[in-house]
Amino acid sequence: MAKKKKSELKGWKLIGKTMRKSLSIFRYGIKALGLVWQTSAVLTVAIAIFTLMSGLLPAAIAYVGKLIVDGVVLASRSGLISDRNLALSYVGFEALLIVILAAAQKGLNVSQSLLRVLLGQQVNVLILEKALTLELAHFEDSEFYDKMTQARSQASSRPLSLISRIFGLGQSALTLLTFSGLLLQFSVWAVIVLVLAAIPSFIAETKFSEHSFRLFKWRSPETRQQHYLETLLAREDYAKEVQLYQLGGMLLRRYRDIFDRLYDEDRNLTIQKGIWGYLLGLLSTGAFYAAYAWIVIEAIAGKISLGEMTMYLVVFRQGQATFAAALTSIGGMYEDNLYLANLYEFLEQPIPKSEGYITRGIEPDGIRFENVSFCYPESTEPVLKDISLHLKHGEKLAIVGENGSGKTTLIKLLTRLYVPTSGRILLDGVDLNDWDIDVLRKRIGVIFQNFVQYQFTVGENVGVGDVERLNEYQEWEVATEKGMAKPFINNMPKGFSTQLGKWFKGGQELSGGQWQKIALSRAFMRSQADILVLDEPTAAMDAEAEMNIFNHFRSLTKDQMVVLISHRFSTVRMADKIIVMADGKIIEQGSHEQLLATDGRYAHLFSLQAAGYK
Ligand code: ADP
């Protein structure tokens, strides 16, 4: 006995769990609704009203159908003009209802189309606003980056899709409810049978959707790979190498292989879903038609009128169609939910705000590293170890060291793209973390090795160095003069107005060295910055240009602190201070002459390069 009870209990629990799971598709409904409301309250209300109308009218139309048939039967029996006119007026009334229904459905379509555009824009803006608050570390964290890419990829369609489906489901529910109301006059049992018959299909549909929802989630890395392959194959900046190394065939094969694998999974799922859907649908259809036969029998026995029979017939037919539509909506809701879950995970990710508020230094001490060590997030291997150095105002520092020795990382810490794991960095006596981040950023001008080649005009490419003076022609002139870009810009047909890059019409491509001159000019554009950070700023320039720049470099940057990474000793030697890095540590420091006298690593590298030029 007890055993039976226990298994009964288990059975109920299982059903409860399944139902709860099935209902979880509504979880993000409220949030999506909030989003839609924020986007356009007017359109949301319009959609709600049109949905209500589209949900209620079918039952009214079915009821008028009954009045028509009963009216026709009555008029043909009585032969009275008044009965005939009444029947005709019912026909007119039905036509009117149909016209209203059509208007409601059109209205629904139009409102949804408008909302789709607005909502897509709203979600994209939300995502981009969030992206602006992120730190570099977030962009370098693949999991987080995934979330952002996924959020962006379907921003225009998913939120509205969920809303349409929720409203659609509401409409179907309303129609089915009013149909049930009509059916109730016939028998409460008919209604109960129909509801019970619907449950298996509902569960099957949600179960399969859940499955495809999981597939969707697992797949995200594969989909990303596919996107990446598409990019390699179809973007202009990769075309050169893909063609010359003849990578096309291999890349396309990989692209196909990924698809084939995904398709196999998809096909099985789709077939299974089809078969189960059909079988469980049969159950519902069986129940529908049993009830239908029952209605026919009652009509033959004269217990219900012909009009009523017609109405029930319509109710059954349309009820089934509505029901099928509702099931399809539910199918898509899982994926919509997945999207929204991902979107909100991204939007709600807490980003620690920079707490610094100091806008002035305590003393004009310059830059000071005190025992700074650093590990990249998710790595335990220190990339910088116990770095200490001091750079006074106006001093120039050069960093030398082999690839991977930590030079760029040191710059990332100095520009506060990352925070030291231990130790501290001071600027004018104040810890970098305590500086107001905007004030700090304004003080720094920087060129990274992989600086951005904006697909803007030449002038704007320079102007972005100081966004507040983005379009000031005078400033462009001064900056490009310093960056040695002026001569070739003057030779361009449209000068500063020349569009750069190949993405937009009339765009012109520059050579690597020319781009570097633009980047250098950009750094000089930031004339209010008193710290200039240059990572290999002249590596792509010809020897003469480089010489020219460094001959003037001291006068160009008289009041600025400069941190320069370079592999060219001709450049490095003019610095006041040189540090030699190896394996994350400073192994030598001093002026060019001091380091040569020490006869260590620096002297060795210098003599190697000097020998090369002999
Ligand atoms: P350098 O500029 O001297 O060539 P880097 O500072 O770029 O060297 O790199 C130092 C070390 O830090 C390298 O071993 C590199 O693998 C590692 N590294 C660089 N960037 C990252 C990153 N974003 N995440 C994890 N490790 C990194």
Automatic annotation (TrEMBL):
<keyword id="KW-0547">Nucleotide-binding</keyword>
<feature type="domain" description="ABC transporter">
    <location>
        <begin position="367"/>
        <end position="608"/>
    </location>
</feature>
<dbReference type="Pfam" id="PF00005">
    <property type="entry name" value="ABC_tran"/>
</dbReference>
<dbReference type="InterPro" id="IPR003439">
    <property type="entry name" value="ABC_transporter-like_ATP-bd"/>
</dbReference>
<feature type="transmembrane region" description="Helical">
    <location>
        <begin position="28"/>
        <end position="50"/>
    </location>
</feature>
<dbReference type="InterPro" id="IPR003593">
    <property type="entry name" value="AAA+_ATPase"/>
</dbReference>
<feature type="transmembrane region" description="Helical">
    <location>
        <begin position="182"/>
        <end position="204"/>
    </location>
</feature>
<keyword id="KW-0812">Transmembrane</keyword>
<dbReference type="InterPro" id="IPR036640">
    <property type="entry name" value="ABC1_TM_sf"/>
</dbReference>
<dbReference type="InterPro" id="IPR027417">
    <property type="entry name" value="P-loop_NTPase"/>
</dbReference>
<dbReference type="InterPro" id="IPR017871">
    <property type="entry name" value="ABC_transporter-like_CS"/>
</dbReference>
<keyword id="KW-1133">Transmembrane helix</keyword>
<dbReference type="GO" id="GO:0005524">
    <property type="term" value="F:ATP binding"/>
</dbReference>
<feature type="transmembrane region" description="Helical">
    <location>
        <begin position="56"/>
        <end position="75"/>
    </location>
</feature>
<protein>
    <submittedName>
        <fullName>ABC transporter ATP-binding protein</fullName>
    </submittedName>
</protein>
<feature type="domain" description="ABC transmembrane type-1">
    <location>
        <begin position="45"/>
        <end position="335"/>
    </location>
</feature>
<feature type="transmembrane region" description="Helical">
    <location>
        <begin position="87"/>
        <end position="104"/>
    </location>
</feature>
<dbReference type="InterPro" id="IPR039421">
    <property type="entry name" value="Type_1_exporter"/>
</dbReference>
<feature type="transmembrane region" description="Helical">
    <location>
        <begin position="275"/>
        <end position="295"/>
    </location>
</feature>
<keyword id="KW-0472">Membrane</keyword>
<keyword id="KW-0067">ATP-binding</keyword>
<dbReference type="InterPro" id="IPR011527">
    <property type="entry name" value="ABC1_TM_dom"/>
</dbReference>
